[in-house]
């Protein structure tokens, strides 16, 4: 099994990066045949901006940008996808949202060109969301973070791509205020 762990946090010494590393170690320790790749979107300089080229690719009137093709190739090599990120304003960071917007394209992740039904193309890929927050569990629930991540709109991202919604794991009370 090969897992792609995508991490989105600007600070290398954050709980987010530490969690991604711990997940990678756990996967590798579970079976010597398992492999892991960590994609650090910040360090790699991924551009989350949905550009005119991305729109042309979405409309299938232009080529998919090379950086998007490279990300898709990473996912194609993976047997599991794990997204590790801090909770910002009841959601994922803009960098990760932009990665999803740009990478999960029509024609590759799904096909919306034939008839009324969307054809899901990543049904084989388990997706795990690991959302980290710097509040305790009571505040996580009180402020609506849990509801925001479990809301049907949030799950729609991955329902579009798979048969079932992605699995969400949240970790409230991440410590020193820096998830």
What's the arrangement of secondary structure elements?
Blueprint: E1 2-7, H1 15-30, E2 35-40, H2 41-44, H3 52-58, H4 66-77, E3 80-86, H5 94-103, E4 110-111, E5 119-120, E6 127-132, H6 137-142, H7 145-150, H8 152-159, E7 167-171
Parallel strand pairs: 1-2, 1-3, 3-6, 6-7
Antiparallel strand pairs: 4-5
Major sheet description: 5 strands, parallel
Level-2 CATH architecture? 3-Layer(aba) Sandwich
- Note the quaternary state here: single chain
Mean pLDDT across residues:
85
Termini separation: 28 Å
The structure class reads: alpha/beta
Protein name: Glutathione-regulated potassium-efflux system ancillary protein kefF
InterPro entries: Flavodoxin_fold, Flavoprotein-like_sf, NAD(P)H_dehydrogenase_qn
Keywords: Oxidoreductase
GO molecular function, one term: NAD(P)H dehydrogenase (quinone) activity
